[in-house]
User: Fold this.
Amino acid sequence: MPRPLRVAIIGAGPAGIYAADALLKSGVAAEPGVSIDLFERMPAPFGLIRYGVAPDHPRIKGIVTALHQVLDKPQIRLFGNVDYPSDITLDDLRAFYDAVIFSTGATADRAMALPGIGLDGSYGAADFVSWYDGHPDVPRTWPLEARKVAVLGVGNVALDVARILAKTADELLPTEIPPNVYEGLQTNQAQEIHVFGRRGPAQAKFSPMELRELDHSPTIEVIVDPEDIDYDEGSIAARRANKQADMVAKTLENWAIRDVGSRPHKLFLHFFESPVEILGEDGKVVGLRTERTELDGSGNVKGAGAFTDWDVTSVYRAVGYLSDRLPKLPWDVESGTVPDEGGRVIAESGEPVQSAYVTGWIRRGPVGLIGHTKGDANETVANLLDDFGNDRLHTPASPAPEAVPAFLAERGVRFTTWDGWHRLDAAEKALGEPQGRERVKIVEREDMLGASGA
Assistant:
């Protein structure tokens, strides 16, 4: 009887789990069968949902329920707290698996060429997100002394950063935030949050629901300047072609014509303001300079030559995430992705790298919503199975499933399992129960390993 197809997936976030699901739903799952191991560098699975989604978005975190159902399948194993490539390399993986899918996502801040970017008080949004989401590998404190703060970018991450800065600690206490984050937010001095977009309302990348959620807080007054509501032919065409863009523009229009209320924290959404310099004094942020822009007819903008200095003492850049380079794989420096064709990794020679595949943000960059990675996974898995059916995969020397935990044990790697996640999950829920909270996230890696029984 032929052995099951053995596949390793590097990264147990949504993209990796969707790839596992696609494999299970394929015809190969029945004959000869498929055996899937997910490797995750965190002690817990779920990647972006656990460490990239704001804690006050339980609706998005509800996606975990569907991912749980996939990981519960007997054909799947989880190896958490295993880092690629320090704990296991591509050569190691080739010894155990017919194919390897990389779904490592994007966790770093994309660089921004702006004078003053290195000043004290200038931060990357990804670092702040990691702090308030309780990532085990970041500092436990965050400086929150600034009364007036700028956020650069008009995507959902910019909204998350602005909203967390504008809310009170007590508003966020019912969520899963750990004690150190609650204590840090209690010291937050922010009273004014200014979000800046280089283009206009029709080009904003907000999701309509996330945008409207800004206005739900009893402490946040969202303010839009009527002068920032402007469209050209390209903008009008964009609204007609994209229902979500039209909904965002309508919400901003409604906010622009209403009277400013009395909620204590003011959140300004500025459009047609292009950052040109972060202003500093004695090594610290003391302001932000922007240039007014104007539409050019196509939906793009050009500088108008008018500059404004904004009185802020903290600047957060939310201009996109960037993936970490993966050793032993080709790399596109400009896009921060692994070159591919249909999910097949492509070498510099133009030939496919045998048995190596990519899906999710490491493949196409950090764009789109979480659910969009399903299409990536389906395409990648379809091409992997095509290679399997045409004998284009390499043959592993040690395909027996028990060889993997033995290898990790020999290397001295303390790994967590799917059963371990259930134990960690129960421990976090037990911490939240006395306070009437769904859970309190455990932050320290050693504590996570202990709760998981690593």
